[in-house]
């Protein structure tokens, strides 16, 4: 009798468990992107009947710390949201699943632009899908340019064109003709908006000659013609031709103070990114001028290459947020379906247009809804040829050393001296076998 009751209870338990909605896949995401992620989850659940275990976490530094802790502890969700700067490091640590084969049968994978996928790649494989990106350019104050007799629109072809424009601006009283971010106060801004944008167009683009790291050998580049050419450009701006004073890189609040100085005409040319279209007037400020009014005040141009034979004509480097699969999810088809639902053209396209985000997909770029934003439509062409940082383990240290190199130039040190200091610091940090000199 007791045995019969136990069997009946077991059967009832089995029925109860089978009636519960399954949790086939889990996701951890940054709450700032709920408008993208939540509809993707809902679409997945509606299509599959499966319940997603969704973990919404506050944004900011604590978010990245939580994800890192979960990955190292082996407790991370199947699907995780990541800032693109950390993708290569996590891929190199075997925390993430490469997506190329997992998404090869998804008909929308082909719509992602090559440049943004390069940002989230490691050793030639894609490890995350980007939801948006940024680009960098040279903004210029149109009132200053008119006063100096410079052409509008302005489209410099070489670094020399930028220097020449700076000299013309100096003559009409613009002492800080060109803000090329330098020194340590800008932090990663110096590396991204200044040094790397220059470096990418500094030499012939054979292999990784214009990068901080040689990806084929896995070694940091301690000395190269591109690094020296880049430092020479910094030297021309701040020391040789002195088209700008060094003090602008040490303002009390470098971001807001320089934004205000640029709008006031005290800075003529500003090396920054597409976010400046809003942030010059206060990031997120609801009372901004219309785009038409902004366009009367400010213009922009792609970053030119050096002009040396064989160098790239224009350059760009990008970041942005992404969604990846953890390594354990590589064999979970539901994790792949969730990723595809989030990045479905309808879901991603609506979020992209609603948030005025620079798209990473050509089909979205071609849509009427996206092209209705004239600024985004104009700058999207820059996305196709962009690249990402060398964000493998150790990158943060290398970036800090790059900032130190530019600070040395501001202080009047020679290129030989700052390069030797940089090279030796790389050797101290990573070992001689991990550092290469290019001729």
TL;DR of this structure?
This protein has 439 residues and is α/β, with parallel strands linked by helices. It is built from 19 helices and 15 strands.
Keywords:
439 residues, alpha/beta, D-Maltodextrin-Binding Protein, domain 2, 2 domains, 5-stranded mixed β-sheet, globular
Strand content: 15-25%
The domain count comes to 2
Q: Which class best fits the helix and strand makeup?
A: alpha/beta
**Largest sheet report:** 5 strands, mixed
Subcellular location: Periplasm
Family: Belongs to the bacterial solute-binding protein 1 family.
Protein name: Extracellular solute-binding protein
Signal peptide: 1-24
Q: Could you characterize what this model shows?
A:
- This protein is 44% helix and 15% strand.
- The chain is an alpha/beta fold and 439 residues long.
- It folds into two domains: 2-134 and 320-383, Periplasmic binding protein-like II (D-Maltodextrin-Binding Protein, domain 2, 3-Layer(aba) Sandwich), CATH 3.40.190.10; 136-315 and 394-437, 3-Layer(aba) Sandwich (D-Maltodextrin-Binding Protein, domain 2), CATH 3.40.190.
- It has a five-stranded mixed sheet with strand order 2-1-3-14-6. The protein has a five-stranded mixed sheet with strand order 8-11-7-12-13, with helices on both faces.
- The longest helix is centred in the first third of the chain and has 18 residues, at 2-19.
- It is globular and about 70 Å long.
- The chain starts with a helix and ends with a strand.
- Mean pLDDT is 93; it is low at 1-22.
């Amino acid at each position: 009798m007791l045995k019969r009751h136990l069997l009946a209870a077991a059967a009832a338990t089995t029925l109860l468990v089978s009636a519960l909605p399954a949790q086939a896949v889990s996701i951890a995401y940054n709450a700032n992107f709920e408008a993208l992620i939540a509809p993707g989850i809902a679409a997945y659940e509606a299509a599959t009947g499966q319940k997603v275990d969704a973990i919404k976490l506050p944004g900011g530094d604590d978010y990245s710390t939580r994800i890192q802790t979960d990955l190292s502890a082996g407790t991370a969700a199947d699907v995780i949201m990541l800032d693109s700067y950390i993708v290569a490091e996590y891929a190199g640590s075997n925390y993430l699943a490469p997506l190329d084969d997992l998404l090869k049968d998804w008909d929308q994978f082909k719509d992602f632009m090559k440049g943004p996928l390069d940002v989230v790649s490691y050793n030639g494989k894609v490890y995350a899908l980007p939801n948006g990106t940024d680009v960098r350019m040279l903004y210029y104050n149109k009132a200053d340019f008119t006063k100096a007799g410079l052409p509008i629109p302005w489209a410099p072809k070489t670094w020399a064109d930028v220097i020449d424009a700076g000299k013309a601006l100096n003559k009409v009283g613009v002492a800080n003709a060109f803000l090329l971010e330098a020194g340590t106060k800008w932090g990663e801004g110096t590396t991204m908006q200044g040094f790397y944008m220059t470096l990418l167009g500094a030499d012939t683009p054979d292999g990784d000659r214009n990068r901080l790291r040689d990806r084929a050998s896995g070694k940091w580049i301690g000395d190269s013609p591109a690094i020296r050419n880049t430092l020479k450009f910094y030297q021309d701006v701040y020391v040789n031709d002195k088209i700008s004073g060094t003090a602008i890189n040490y303002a009390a609040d470098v971001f807001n103070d320089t934004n205000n100085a640029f709008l006031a005409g005290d800075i003529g040319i500003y090396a920054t990114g597409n976010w400046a279209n809003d942030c010059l007037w206060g990031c997120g400020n609801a009372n901004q001028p219309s785009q038409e009014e902004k366009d009367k005040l400010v213009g922009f141009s792609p970053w030119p290459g050096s002009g040396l034979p064989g160098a790239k004509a224009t350059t760009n480097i990008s970041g942005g947020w992404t969604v990846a699969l953890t390594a354990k999810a590589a064999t979970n088809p539901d994790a792949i379906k969730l990723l595809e639902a989030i990045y479905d053209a309808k879901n991603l396209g609506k979020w992209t247009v609603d948030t005025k985000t620079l798209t990473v997909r050509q089909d979205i770029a071609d849509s009427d809804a996206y092209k209705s934003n004239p600024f985004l439509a104009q700058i999207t062409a820059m996305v196709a040829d962009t690249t990402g940082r060398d964000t493998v383990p150790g990158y943060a240290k290398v970036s800090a050393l790059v900032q130190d190199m530019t600070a040395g130039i501001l202080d009047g040190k020679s290129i030989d001296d700052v390069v030797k200091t940089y090279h030796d610091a790389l050797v101290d940090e990573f070992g001689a076998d991990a550092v290469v000199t290019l001729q």
